């Protein structure tokens, strides 16, 4: 039993902390928030040099072959820095290919993705649906050896800058569709989160050859979702950590009634609550990340626990930080709102807290009659 | 990172598990505290014979010298199997470790063995009517008289004082020194004229703890622990020991509680279905499961940190806070599941689960008060972990 980062993981953490802090200062995040793509290609290239797009992908396909714990370390830092980057969407697309793709698909899509030369995005949820994990309505109509797709996908992260999409259909299959393919239209959808772009993807008679449909089926994609949950929950943990630190610093400096406001228990107890939620979030995330690497049978419960908890903490902690800051925290000029918005957007991505708690209830109530596990 | 037990840790767990399964004395007797204490004394005797009492104590003092992880495994396994508490829980968790850390050779010789055997029960005389969270303001005074000290004052919330032979007493020996400096830690014989313990009846109707009235009681100078004027730092060691040992038992106890809560939800009908099908109940139950898991994982992270640094950090306060909160909310949810039946107590024919949750609901009210109130824990976290300024 040893629950701490290894030296190698500490090194990933400090490299990421330094790299991201140098690139994403407040002014830079604001510039990118107003830009069209929302990120900077040259930053992406540097991240690719660091091996980040392929961090948790198999070495066989050009990845670094590291685990989900290492991935969580990186994404906690991405959240801490509030890095505007398509790294999350591409990472999840990469995991989908690594876990569910054919060798041919891996050769064409995964290898360039791991090298940072191609980006992938998820186009899973159908316009007008509840956009919950695993519930898809788009039909895959047979067309020769392949299928043809018609309809509109929503909430597709970083779609405009992706080279290909992973599109879900009602038969619980996934299809690889290139952004440049005939019949694909990508439209920006303004999001409260200005540090991550969302798009709708309209597919009008888009032909998918047989070789571009992933072999896996329904539940086979579950491990991809669970790992995506761990990564985004790690990001939310970083958001909580950063905004808690901001609140604590402010509470030490800001004086009212002749004292630093952090000396008042109304404020200091709020900060203690922020610490509790941040640490709980971190424990849940690394517990689930470890399960992904070492004990996959406990991953479904652990990942839903982590995503549920971090979904809440990821926006409540920045929200509490705004309260500690008072009026200045509500201004556009202060950075806190960017964190709150990312946290709130993360909360509803890959299943919200309520959805994941329902999963937890399912899993634990099924065991209600079983003996207490060791 | 490795959250599983190593082969040797697993071997240790299996040894603990087997021993407990073979020696578990069954549930505690119903009835008065007297019967319960007798039962627990016998249980502790059995633990001691097998070398499980004082598991954290060094071997040279009759303990097992177990590592932190082994202690965690033992406490967790005992709670999982719902083994009774040993009779001398305060002596084992606090008194012994303090004598080992601060006591003289004579004190170690005299006091340690009877703690392990439960021959002599210990209690803790810290809190006073006017000094609760602000412990260092305590007023019980000790005045030197030859080679004895004469003690007068009052202590309160003294668990098992009515059965105790020795009291870990903190008293003021220098009224002129700053409040943290003028205190001394004594071992006071409870069996003397001048010491009177009167049980306080709790909201559960039981009397676990007491008021202790001290009127010119006598303590030999040889019973000072850690030197005159050092009472505060000796007392702090005691409290650290109290907190460090509790976490893993609390975690297993919560796991048992959550399992029972799941069973209660599955068996109780509400709104035309079972409570386990009710979306609001499911959501609350899941949230408790999640928080219990974060508490467990936090404790493992804390344990790793303590093994590296050698001392438990102030982060332990998070666990105590969380434990109280989860325990209280579990019982609240149970009573909500029971709905209209919630008032029916033990002994009522139609009480659900024999009124067990009614007792838990009431007893758990103390969880956010005993052993450091949640409010004080938040102060500790704010000041010692986050570095926020003190109000005082």
Task: Explain how this protein is built.
The complex is a heterodimer of chains A (374) and B (392). Chain A has 374 residues and is an alpha+beta fold. Chain A folds into three domains: 7-114, Butyryl-Coa Dehydrogenase, subunit A, domain 1, CATH 1.10.540.10; 120-215, Beta Barrel (Butyryl-CoA Dehydrogenase, subunit A, domain 2); 219-365, Butyryl-CoA Dehydrogenase, subunit A, domain 3 (Up-down Bundle). Helices cover 51% and strands 14% of the residues of chain A. Chain A contains eleven helices and ten strands. Chain A has helices spanning 7-23, 26-34, 41-49, 68-81, 87-100, 103-114, 222-253, 265-294, 299-325, 336-347, 353-365, and strands spanning 120-123, 125-126, 140-143, 146-157, 164-168, 174-178, 184-189, 198-208, 255-256, 259-260. In chain A, the strands form three sheets. In chain A, strands 2, 3, 4, 7 and 8 form a five-stranded antiparallel sheet that branches. Chain A has a three-stranded mixed sheet with strand order 1-5-6, with helices on one face. Chain A starts with 6 loop residues before the first helix and ends in a 9-residue tail after the last helix. The relative contact order of chain A is 0.11. The mean pLDDT of chain A is 96. The two termini of chain B are 41 Å apart. In chain B, helix 4 packs antiparallel against helix 6 (231-267) and helix 7 (279-309) packs antiparallel against helix 8. Chain B has ten helices and ten strands. Chain B has helices at residues 7-23, 33-49, 68-80, 89-102, 105-117, 231-267, 279-309, 316-338, 356-364, 374-385, and strands at 122-125, 141-145, 148-159, 166-172, 183-189, 195-199, 209-220, 224-225, 269-270, 273-274. Chain B is of the alpha+beta class and 392 residues long. A four-stranded mixed sheet of chain B has the order 1-4-5-8. Chain B has a four-stranded antiparallel sheet with strand order 2-3-7-6, with no helix packed on it. Chain B has three domains: 7-117, Acyl-CoA dehydrogenase/oxidase, N-terminal domain (Butyryl-Coa Dehydrogenase, subunit A, domain 1); 122-229, Beta Barrel (Butyryl-CoA Dehydrogenase, subunit A, domain 2), CATH 2.40.110; 234-385, Butyryl-CoA Dehydrogenase, subunit A, domain 3 (Up-down Bundle), CATH 1.20.140.10. At the A-B interface, helix 7, strand 10, helix 8, helix 9 and helix 11 of A face helix 1, helix 6, helix 7, helix 8 and helix 10 of B.
